[in-house]
Design a protein that fits this description.
- This protein is an alpha/beta fold and about 375 residues long.
- It has a domain at about 1-115 and about 320-379: 3-Layer(aba) Sandwich (Rossmann fold), CATH 3.40.50.300.
- The chain has helices spanning about 35-50, 125, 130-145, 145-175, 185-220, 245-260, 260-270, 290, 295-315, 335-345, and strands at about 1-10, 15-20, 25-30, 70-75, 80-85, 95, 100, 115, 230-235, 280-285, 285-290, 320-325, 350-355, 365-370, 375.
- Helix 3 (about 130-145) packs across helix 5 (about 185-220) and helix 5 packs across helix 6.
- The radius of gyration is 22 Å and the shape is globular.
- It starts with a strand and ends with a strand.
């Protein structure tokens, strides 16, 4: 896979810019605040339909504009595909493939596969469980775009069930004596368990595939530290290796867990069991990485998660574009060299840096100067 052309219209700081790319390494150099990260953010957006920097799409639209457009030409198996995403505030995004409109924007997922590592990824180790769930789910969708529909179905059911829990709980508390739980809650329990079991099963399989690749990547980046291990932590209150196998069995386990916590759910008005409450446990040297890892160790751990994701997607048959956003300045000499050696083996790598000196000499290739909304190929 190769990202050959990237064009932005009213995206972030760019009124309009077009960049011609090529295989190998491309380095974007410029002072902070000039738009380097905006470029690679757009690459990640085409791949994931989400920004790695903000939760909402609104900040992606240039101030004063009413929409933003990202176009990318992707080459796979010697065939060119033009994917266009239109971002409009308050409305569903629109997508085109080779100029033809798609019924849903998510139908364009999978055209471009990219793995983006950025400073924000430190939250994978030090942040809340939501950061790690998002990491897993984005990787799931990159491996199998149909999982985007599974995620949306689960989120829709979860929203409906939470609304019912909130109204039912309020109704019960308003009576002198406890009332009956609405029979419709059993129906939504079944819906949530069915949708959640598909997502949970996929996550468990993903973590099993990912764990050895993370350990390998960390050992290469930081051979004097570690070892690292991952473990899926389910809200079913069972270790990952104790969970049943198969979506049907997982759905039954989810329903049993919901039954056990129903009173607490009604009291709080939220669903306390399901993939939305799960976490990915990260350990370093047998201790939780969150709270025990140093800044350098946490940085290397987060980077190892992304590199392992890249290796996993490549093993599935299509090597993704690797994006390293302002990474090397944070690494010591040894880890910088190790990362450069790994990155140099990738088919296509996009690197951003404030100064050329931050980029290891091993990463030779195209150089672009980024300044005041202009991107120019260096001679």
């Amino acid at each position: 896979m190769e990202l050959r052309d990237l064009e932005l219209v009213d995206f972030r700081s760019y009124e309009q810019v077009a960049v011609a790319l090529e295989p190998g390494v491309s380095v974007f150099v410029g002072p902070n605040g000039q738009g380097k990260t905006n470029l690679v953010e757009a690459v990640g957006y085409v791949a994931n339909h989400a920004s790695h920097r903000v939760a909402s799409d609104t900040p992606l639209i240039r101030s004063g504009a009413d929409r933003a457009v990202v176009r990318a030409t992707v080459v796979r198996d010697d065939r060119d595909t033009l994917v266009e995403l239109e971002i409009v505030p308050g409305r569903s995004n629109r997508a085109r493939l080779n100029r033809s409109p798609l019924p849903r924007a998510r139908d364009a997922l999978g055209v471009l596969t990219a793995v983006v590592f950025a400073p924000e990824d430190l939250a994978l180790v030090k942040g809340d469980p939501a950061e790690r769930r998002r990491f897993l789910d984005e990787l799931l969708v990159a491996r199998a775009p149909r999982m985007a529909g599974v995620r949306q179905d689960y989120e829709r059911v979860l929203k409906q069930r939470n609304a019912l829990l909130k109204s039912a709980g309020a109704a019960i508390r308003s009576r002198a004596a406890p009332g009956e739980v609405p029979a419709t809650l059993d129906v939504w329990d079944a819906h949530l368990a069915a949708a959640g079991s598909l997502l949970l099963e996929a996550r468990l399989d993903l973590v099993a595939d990912l764990a050895p690749l993370v350990a390998k990547a960390y050992a290469e980046l930081a051979p004097d530290s570690g070892p690292v291990t991952l473990a899926y932590k389910s809200s079913i209150d069972a270790a990952a290796d104790e969970l049943p196998h198969g979506a049907e069995a997982l759905a039954l386990a989810l329903r049993d867990a919901m039954t056990r916590v129903r009173r607490q759910e009604l009291d709080r008005g939220i669903s306390l069991v399901g993939p939305h409450r799960d976490d990915l446990g990260l350990e370093l040297g047998g201790l939780p990485a969150k709270g025990y890892a140093s800044h350098g160790e946490a940085w290397s751990y987060a980077l190892s998660l992304r590199l392992a994701g890249h290796d996993l997607l490549a093993s599935d048959g299509t090597e993704p574009v690797l994006v390293l956003d302002d990474v090397f300045a944070e690494l010591d000499t040894q880890r910088r060299a190790q990362l450069a050696a790994r990155a140099s083996r990738a088919d296509q790598v996009l690197v951003t840096a404030a100064v050329t000196e931050d980029v290891p000499a091993l990463l030779t290739g195209a150089r672009f100067a980024v300044s005041f909304g202009r991107v120019e190929r260096a001679s």
